[in-house]
Amino acid sequence: MSNDLSVRNMVKKFDDFTAVDNVTFDVPKGSFFSILGPSGCGKTTLLRMIAGFEEPTSGAIEIRGKDMLGVPPNHRPVNLVFQHLALFPMMNVEENIAFGLKRRGVKGPEIRKQTDTMLERVGLPGFGGKQINQLSGGQKQRVAIARCLVLEPSVLLLDEPLGALDLKLREQMKIELKKLQTKIGTTFIYITHDQSEALVMSDHVAVMNNGQFEQIGTPQELYGKPKTPFVAQFVGDNNQWSGNVTQSNPGEIIIATDDGYSFRTKGDAPCADGCRVNLYLRPEAIRIEPRQTEGLNVFDVQVKSILFDGANSRLLTTTKEEHELIVTLPQTRKFDHIKPGDTISVGWHPESGICFEAEA
């Protein structure tokens, strides 16, 4: 499969500060690729270099095999959708979408044809005559995307485009955007600090931290097999223990945690006896009131509160040493009897633990 975008050894420095630090990646044609990271990690600077609004200090950018260094933004086959959509309020929907076509010199009948086609593709047929202030947040979002797509970019860049929407609309638009991208087949490069957005919509996600990519993978890989402590903590929820390795066997290690537990867990990386480690465990990996015969790490916790959130409900618990743990509450009436103040047995399988050597 050919790549729509290739970035090689990209560096951007602002005086003594390195915003983007030797980033390399490829985005296959027709894919949804997200760059996920906290505020200030360099992801928007990287996007602006791809768009042509910032010049890299060093490195190379190719779009469909063509070198983009020195090519101004208006001559690059990319379009950028911002969080604040920058629609023209004095123009109606059709005029907003047609704006770029008019600047290209496309004639009236062809403009109307392309605009109507694009409104159909983004699910807004017949909306051409509406004013921008008559649209909902989600409809404005689609008009902004239509205005970019009508110019047939090789790559559509989206910089936190759902950030200004309310929570329920954001949840709807995540699904809408993924469906839209799949339908039209344009390559999307999506910037976000919201892990849910990245995981739900993307074919591949790059997790960015301090100007570098920590890991690139499918959402399933990032969630199930994080390669660094930062990815383990940033992608999804995790419970964490610190401790020392007391025994190291092929494929399994035994850890003595700082709060007095002895846990068996899989050993992905070689950790010698006495090695200082951090152990991460997903809330959904912890089973409530498990059978003792399943080979689990079993211990008691006290329920502090029930965090009710429908299908995503969880228990806030503490160990005997007041170590806080989040435990997923399965969607079954089996555990309806649990209430704050109860002491319950929990357990987790050694295969569920993710372990990293602690940084000095």
Class from secondary-structure proportions: alpha+beta
Shape: globular
- Under the CATH scheme, the architecture of the largest domain is 3-Layer(aba) Sandwich
Q: Low-confidence parts, pLDDT < 50 over ≥5 residues?
A: none
CATH class of the largest domain: Alpha Beta
Mean pLDDT: 89
Number-wise, the strands total 20
Q: How far apart lie the N and C ends?
A: 42 Å
- The CATH H-level homologous superfamily of the largest domain: P-loop containing nucleotide triphosphate hydrolases
Task: Jot down its keywords.
360 residues; 35% strand; alpha+beta; OB fold (Dihydrolipoamide Acetyltransferase, E2P); 6-stranded mixed beta sheet; Rossmann fold; single chain
Topology:
Elements: E1 3-14, E2 17-28, E3 32-36, H1 43-51, E4 58-63, E5 66-67, E6 78-81, H2 93-103, H3 108-121, H4 137-149, E7 155-159, H5 167-184, E8 187-192, H6 195-201, E9 204-209, E10 212-217, H7 219-224, H8 229-234, E11 239-249, E12 252-257, E13 262-266, E14 276-281, E15 287-288, E16 297-307, E17 314-318, E18 324-328, E19 343-348, E20 354-357
Parallel strand pairs: 3-8, 3-9, 6-7, 7-8
Antiparallel strand pairs: 1-2, 1-4, 4-5, 9-10, 11-12, 11-14, 12-13, 14-20, 15-19, 16-17, 16-19, 17-18
